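HOLO CASE FILE
Compound: magnesium ion
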Amino acid sequence: MTTRFSLAVVPGDGIGPEVTSQALTVLDAVAADHDVAFERTEYDLGARRWHATGETLPETVLEEIRGHDAILLGAIGDPSVPSGVLERGLLLRLRFELDHYVNLRPSKLYPGVPTPLAGSVTDRGDIDFVVVREGTEGPYVGNGGAIRVGTPHEMATEVSVNTAFGVERVVRDAFARAQARPRKKLTLVHKNNVLVHAGHLWKRTVDAVATEFPDVTTDYLHVDAATIFLATDPARFDVIVTDNLFGDILTDLAAAVTGGIGLAASGNVNPDRTAPSMFEPVHGSAPDIAGQSKADPTAAILSGALLLEHLGLPEAAARITTAVEADIADRGTTARRTEEVGEAIAARVAGGVAVG
Ligand SMILES: NC(=O)c1ccc[n+]([C@@H]2O[C@H](COP(=O)([O-])OP(=O)(O)OC[C@H]3O[C@@H](n4cnc5c(N)ncnc54)[C@H](O)[C@@H]3O)[C@@H](O)[C@H]2O)c1
Ligand SMILES: CC(C)[C@H](C(=O)O)[C@@H](O)C(=O)O
Ligand SMILES: [Mg+2]
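Model generated. Tokens follow.
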């Protein structure tokens, strides 16, 4: 019997629709073999809607989206809209309202992928780590303001919020993920030599939760040093847990050293399943290449694989990652159009051996 899943699809802005349609093609290619069907509702949210109506995320639309099994999102943000309006009013609002407190960002260096890594990195095969980025707190919450705007005496604040509740739940999730991985290693990244209030809360929380996971080894890096090691020795990482802003920055760097932003997938996960989780590439709307079929849809396609895992379909997810891995190994240097990449991966998925 076919199992039906409802998907809310938010293609969004710039290259968002281009890469999302490829992710959907690949999801459909894998669905039939696994006896699942995706019933999709597409939501017109982003710059076009904002220009037409002034809306970013109407309450009624949010409630409709809430009723789905999962969300697939392309990218949000457009140069024609003041910076922050869509990012905060749409993307972050979805993450906050749907309690996506685990922002999961895996990084893996696939064989054959070019990387700007330092020449000293020899054991490239071991580069396989995941950043568990806190998704609902930190400096992202909008706790700030500005006075005397536009004057020489302007003062602006953007206060980072870190609650014991919020830190503990994401740290606990990161430990569980570390425990389930072969190396069982967790690195806390923060800046507790300077940010002593938030940093010490994070450190104390990791130390306390560690007692419940005796088989997981832990270490700590200041965020500045973490950027050094991400560029020179990324194989040292297994699971990184960090706050919302550090995680944002580290994961673009992680993407850059593992083949580029076009390959980096993510899941905004609500582990308690009180609302649908949302899967999206790490990259943005890339206005510089939008509408030219130049975007690499691989990140969106791999985000589709994370979505399948979340829905309890690990074999279907593996079909996609295996197809992507094969496509990457074969890529060479000839540039392909967005849809060519998507169709090639979909063909490999369809031609693959059905498992599960
Ligand atoms: N999750 C999201 O929706 C998200 C994430 C990041 C940025 N943004 C928004 O996107 C807009 C542009 O931001 P930005 O330029 O800082 O970041 P970006 O990720 O959109 O682009 C950075 C660079 O990476 C390239 N790039 C991105 N995705 C690519 C892909 N799939 N294939 C090939 N090249 C790719 C772009 O061409 C650009 O040169 C802004 O409005 C920003 O707020 C949204
Ligand atoms: C667009 C922005 C709000 C977003 C973030 O900072 O989380 C983006 O950079 C990301 O990485 O998904
Ligand atoms: Mg980012």
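CASE NOTES: The mean pLDDT is 95. The chain has two domains: 1-102+275-356, 115-258.
CLOSED: yes
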